[in-house]
Amino acid sequence: MSTLADVPGVPIAFKRNAREALDDRQLRRNFRGAMDFLMDKRRSQFPDGDELERLRAFGNRVRARALSKLPELLERLDANLTRNGVKVHWAETVEEANAIVHRIVEQHAAKKIIKGKSMVSEEMEMNHYLGERGIDCLESDMGEFIVQLREEKPAHIIMPAIHLNAGQVAKLFHDKLEVDYTEDVDRLIQIGRETLRRNFFEADIGVSGVNFAIAETGTLLLVENEGNGRLSTTVPPVHIAVTGIEKVVENLRDVIPLLSLLTRSATGQAITTYVNMISGPRKADELDGPREVHLVLLDNGRTQAFADGELRQTLNCIRCGACMNHCPVYTRIGGHAYGTVYPGPIGKIITPHMLGLDVTRDLPTASSMCGACSEVCPVKIPIPALLRRLREEAVRAPEAEPHHVRGQGTKYSKKETMVWKAWRSLNTSPVLYRAAMYAGTRLRGLMPSTIGPWTAHRSAPRLAARTLHELAREHLGDQ
Amino acid sequence: MSHPFPATANATRVAPPLEAARAYPVKPSDVFLFGTCVIDVFFPGAGMDAIRLLEREGITVHFPQAQSCCGQPAYTSGYTDEARAVARAQIALFAGEWPVVVPSGSCAGMFRHHYFELFKDEPQTLKQVESLAERTFELAEFLLEVCRVRLEHTGSPVRVALHTSCSARREMNTHVHGRALLKQLAGVERVDHDHESECCGFGGAFSVRMPDISGAMVKDKTAALKGSGAAEVVSADCGCLLNINGCFEKQGDTLRGEHLASFLLRRTSPAAEGGAR
After folding, report:
1. For chain A, which residues make up each domain, given as ranges?
2. What strands, in cross-sheet order, belong to the sheet with B30-33?
3. Cβ contact A368–B197 (<8 Å)
4. pLDDT at residue B235 in the model
5. Which of A25, A94, A308, A443 is the most buried (most CB within 10 A)?
6. Is B187 part of any domain?
7. Residues near A197 by Cβ (< 8 Å), separated by ≥ 6?
8. B64, B84: one domain
9. Total tally of structural domains belonging to chain B
10. Are B217 and A332 inside 8 Å of each other by CB?
């Protein structure tokens, strides 16, 4: 019988996805090389460790302040965008967000959409939703364009096609775009740009994401390196921006440190090639720009994280991707194995709020808690602490109150709970502990040489002949 | 001193994060040793070597026989109540004025950082937690910063690779101390290994719950340690050593990691090659 876990690529099949990824030598090489490169790039941007620490602490406080008054800032953002002539829409679910976009599309009888990079549109599966309704969405970010041609999802939130090497892209372009085979990266980029170029002018609507939504001025800020974001948001007559509700910041002053942290942490750039600031549609006396600008603000589980003081820190995220670049797990299994829009450490802590802890049950566990992610996080999200918290929610009794996370108790088992209760008794009763350790070391010859999954890659650990408790008592006396 | 942010991903960061800075007391006459449960049953020799190193500095070591585990296995698995109960038992045992020396960055990190989270709702206990955290030192850190040891190498020249656990590196910042101690030994050359700051894949229950990913990580780690050209491998965390040594053994390799305390004692005591193993 087939179960959900048999469907590849979904988070519930994480363990299987990961196993397959680990066996893919090419994928392993591609990721290791790419992540090493990105770590070096980032490091070169922060030569002064003290400056980095100060900036991270500041970034953390700016985000914490914005989140502390999130409802108020969202209302101000709405009011100021509206004053600027931007139409603001609120969506609780991805279904609502897609319906809003679809209504705008229908109002304009649009057939063709050009898209700048947007992870929220990936959350919505907008391409699929609109595609089913006869509307053609074309990704214009080079990485997104490549994964769309391959009918894949992005493998990384900043670099969607990071899992591929030049040869794989060369073959893809040769097969799908019917161009001569070349592994020359500059030439490949040219081919992509030439293919995309006319589409900006043919599109009825441009869709983009948002990096920071600035409440005070009613401004949508968008960073990019290819110019496709600027074209997508200025050439078509209608621009629809989609974003999560947590992207709001109070004012332009707050953006400066966050922007610096974002680009330096993400791609190791002091600043991106393009920084777009959109504060409304074309005015009567202006020659260009869209005639209509919409913003769709999506919740999709974010308010669940917001409601809990600890889990709220998840929403500090400015989507730089540094956590995945530095993650030893992500480096080995790549982005697709997670089966989620957001892979890597940030994906493990945010996706449970979007899809439920039951669907994502293996994600919080898939970490050695090494802390490489939180060490580089530009806004100091304590990712291991949040993973631990989600583990706690996963093993709490499903009916236990209060209920913080949808899918609570998905890993609750009476048997495992009993095991930990026994562990507690053992470790809180000195007599029991010493007796057990004494017995264990005396019976060590009986210990099996294979112990479950541990011995697939390692020999079984061997108990010592005598415990430290015994040796220390001999040496120091009974204390 | 090398540049704090070297140019390659393989090199590790030298500059400690600002929050890691702490004040050190003068050398005390007495200390507690928290042996850790992993050392208790898998590496008791490392625990004894830690005791001997401290005694050699003229310190009286106290090992409360009622100690067990710091609570970390339950804590990281999400069984917070169970972790709290076990933590409470340790806090009571290590009350007083004496420093608590821990031959593991990981368990020391529990005492110093995570007990605050465990007892955040108990103001009375928090006072004891604060005292314990203040008095907790990882062994290498204690030898270097509190005992101010000056070690003299007595063995033949050797190249060693030092694996530092993630907690030691990122919570305790004690990779600098391990390095500094090795540097005191004239005949010991510490060599870097590839992706040195990367996790070995142990992570306690992680190695059992995600055996394939953990296995891939430890295979890369053992390959890097082999590739460094080191004749010996040392680490100040026995959890990592269980993982790394198990992988070496499974691969039929004869290389084995040893606890830093054992290495230091063996390499500096007059009776070279002594020490409880």
Report:
1. 46-303, 414-476
2. B60-62, B30-33, B100-102, B136-138
3. no
4. 98
5. A94
6. yes
7. none
8. yes
9. 2
10. yes
Please list the helix, strand and coil fractions of chain A in percent, rounded to the nearest 5, in that order.
55, 10, 35
CATH of domain A46-303: 3.40.50.10420
Single out the residue of B216, B275, B277 nearest to residue B243, CA to CA: B216
- If asked whether residues B37 and B142 sit together in one domain, one would say yes
CB A267 within 8 A of CB A43: no
Domain stop point among B146, B177, B206: B146
The answer for B 22-61 residues in CB contact with A (under 8 A) is 33, 35, 37, 39-45, 47-48, 51, 61
pLDDT value of residue B4 = 33
Instruction: Report if residue B131 sits inside a domain.
Output: yes
Whole-angstrom distance, CA of residue B59 vs CA of residue A469: 19
Q: Is A371 left (phi over 0), alpha (psi -120 to 50) or beta?
A: left
A449 touches B: beta carbon within 8 Å: no
B19 within a domain of the structure (yes/no): no
Interface contact A457-B77, CB threshold 8 A: no
What part of A 343-382 touches B (C-beta under 8 Å)? 365-372, 374-375
Chain B residue with minimal CA distance to A39?
B9
Its domain, for residue B214, covers 158-272
Question: Chain-wide mean pLDDT for chain B?
Answer: 90
d(CA A362, CA A339): 11
- Under a CB-based contact definition with an 8 Å cutoff, are residues A154 and A160 in contact? yes
Summarize pLDDT for B111-163 with one digit per residue, the tens: 999 999 999 999 999 999 999 999 999 999 999 999 999 999 998 999 999 99
Which of A26-58 are b and which e, b meaning 16 or more Cβ less than 10 Å from the residue's Cβ? ebbebbeebbbebbbbbbebbeebeebbebbeb
Q: Do B213 and A22 touch (CB under 8 A)?
A: yes
Is this prediction's pTM over 0.90? Answer: yes
**Phi-psi category of residue A85: left, alpha or beta, with phi > 0 → left and psi -120 to 50 → alpha:** left
| Closest CB to A452 among B17, B89, B208 | B208
Rg over alpha carbons for chain B, rounded to the nearest Å, is 18
pLDDT, tens digit, 9 for 90 and up, residues A461-471: 999 999 999 99
**Residues of chain A under the 50 pLDDT cut:** 1-6
pLDDT band for B271, please (50, 70, 90 cuts): very low
- CATH number at B219 reads 3.40.50.11810
Calculate ∠ Cα B262-B266-B154, nearest 5°: 145
- DSSP letter at B113 equals I
State residue B1's pLDDT score: 32
Closest CA to A206 of A190, A225, A222: A222
Distance CA B99, CA A62 (A): 38
Q: How confident is the model at residue B277 (pLDDT cuts 50, 70, 90)?
A: very low
Asked if B32 and B99 count as a contact pair (C-beta separation under 8 A), the reply is: yes
Q: What are phi and psi of B25, to 5 degrees?
A: -80, 170
pLDDT for position B14:
33
B199 at interface of A, judged by CB pairs closer than 8 A = yes
Are both B179 and B250 inside the same structural domain? yes
